[in-house]
Design a protein that fits this description.
By secondary structure, the chain is mostly beta strands. The protein has one domain: Beta Barrel (Cyclophilin). It is built from 2 helices and 9 strands, in the order E-E-H-E-E-E-E-E-E-H-E. Strand 3 (about 30-35) and strand 4 (about 40-45) form a beta hairpin. The protein is globular, with a radius of gyration of 13 Å.
Amino acid sequence: MKLNISQQEYTAVLEDNPATRQLMAKFPMTLEMEELNGNEKYYQFAEGFPANDEDIGQIHAGDIMLFASHYVVIFYKDFPSQYRYTRLGHIDNPKGLAEALGSGKAVVSFRK
């Protein structure tokens, strides 16, 4: 999958699961993602995705996760987490990701 953020392109390797397949069926798409906690951007979908939540333990910059069946999250910092997520994928080289996403809302385009 390709992501375009602030005119920078990133490549992500996706998990093979029902949630990822449902998300990819929406491609190409552009989302205005909200900032949360100084470490992630998220978008809330009206419809739910099939979840297979697991204890992640450690979040890594570039992780793409599903939270609570409705939220697609892109993490741009490493940190420990006690929350449960469904893994969607990971950005291959997240260098510069935090800067590209910025401090407020971020517009992210997704395509196959």
